[in-house]
Amino acid sequence: MAQWQIAMIMMIGYLVVALFIGVLAGRNQDKSSLEEFTTAKGNLGLFVMWFLMGGAVFSAFSFLGAPGWAFSRGAPALYIITYTAFAILPWYIIGPKIGAIGRKHNIYTVAGFLQLRYSSRVIAMIIGIVALLASIQYLATQMKGMAYIFNIMTEGRIPFWLGALLSYGIVVVYVATGGLRAAAWSDVFQGILMIVISWTVGLTIVNQLHDSVPNMFRNLTQDNPGFLQIGAEGSTMSTMAYTTTILVSTIGFLMWPHLFSKSYATKARTIKKTVLVYPMFALFLIPLLFVGFSAVNVIQSDQIGSPDEILPYLITTVLTLPGWVYGLVGAGALAAAMSTADAITHSASLEFTDGLIRNVKKDLSSKATLLIMRIGVFVIGGLAYFITVFGGQGLIALLLGAYGSIVQFAPGVYGALYSKKITAPAVITGLISGTVVNYYFQLVADAPPLDINPGILGLIVNVGLVVLISAFSQGKEMPMAEEYRKIGS
Amino acid sequence: MTKQKFIKIYCLSLTIPFLLLVFPLFSIANRETPFIIGLPFSVFWVIFWIVVTFIIVLFLYKIDPDKDEKEVH
């Protein structure tokens, strides 16, 4: 049997198992319960929670992008493990607080959380729309990863559109039927698979190319001095860009609705224990960076289309590995992409329904809401699919802008948690201005001043405006402000 | 220990390793040599402080006065 056949059989086998686990997890649960669909009734256990949050780390970006960064940029790739280790830490403090507020007031989204605190429907609607657009962008990246891996591992026999359809179609099915619980249990399976694969395959590649890890680094520092030094001659990133990229990723991480909303899905103790082990997840990514480092000077960058292709390229073209390794890597990459895609699809549907639809049409029963959310999963899945496969430049720019603006939720969220003075007009103005600034420096201007990350520039403007406008717009009653601040502190 | 005090200790003790991993403080470690356990110094430094952070969080959890956040107000 040819190698691509073995790989294809293994990947399809993996997809069948993933579908099975997802559908099985949602079985025997109350299918008509909005609470079950949105937050798994707030009783997800520790083990599942680890992987549900871990799924955010094990994405197509980490599996394909991290080796790509290490290969093309060197030391700046260290930003990935740095922010992964630290971004979760605030959750220890804010997670239980958000969870307590949510349980008391039946909230299960970011939009709902901000709407109640600021007594503002406009905020919820903005969040609903931004979350939808940003999620579609995020999904498109994951789906590209899935389709790409299918394509290359079967040596081009499964076309791009079919690979994306197969793998993402399965995600849509189990999320729509089983809600959060199905996503969570699939993530456990996918997370374990990805960790095992990245270590075994990652270290095998390093050893085949350079005999050992120390040897690889010795070769690298000899041939490319400065490559492992940020901001040095021959480096690809300035120290300012490195630092602000870590900052923006760390602050933005918990603002993603699919992570923020997990605060509602479990108990305080489980949140804390999840934070406890999370820095370890960052270390699981190390072999993926090593793969990228190992390819420097072995592969010329013009041999591959983009740096993200380095891992699959090494496996299929450079190394002599048996077909089952193709299959394993394929399955691991699919697992990484799917465990991220399921959580995002789920939360995008929730945020859009709760933030926009429920504010436009106010008297929805919880049964109707649940139905809209289920349909939303299919609609969002379809949209993301068509954008991935057919894409359009203008559209992609719009989505990128939304993607970069998630971090701009931060002042509103932290203001809601810790201040009773922040007002709705301040948060709205800050959010919009921050988004515009980010968009301008990311996509319009040539280079941001001082090489500061555009998201941080936006955040500076955002925070400044929130503080300033809050001072001038006191007066309107905010009945929840004091309660939000007091709960859980 | 009160909860407010714990939150302060939590934030402070985790800000320190974070600052060591971003500039300006990361300049201390932003170089290739010496190699430690086969890793360039910068790579070793990042991994080392992530492991230390892991240990700090374990310790913080141990001294957390209210692990369950009992919802009484």
UniProtKB/TrEMBL annotation, chain B:
InterPro entries: DUF3311. Keywords: Membrane, Transmembrane, Transmembrane helix. It comes from the Bacteria. The chain crosses the membrane at residues 7-29, 35-61. This is Membrane protein YhjC. It comes from Halobacillus faecis.
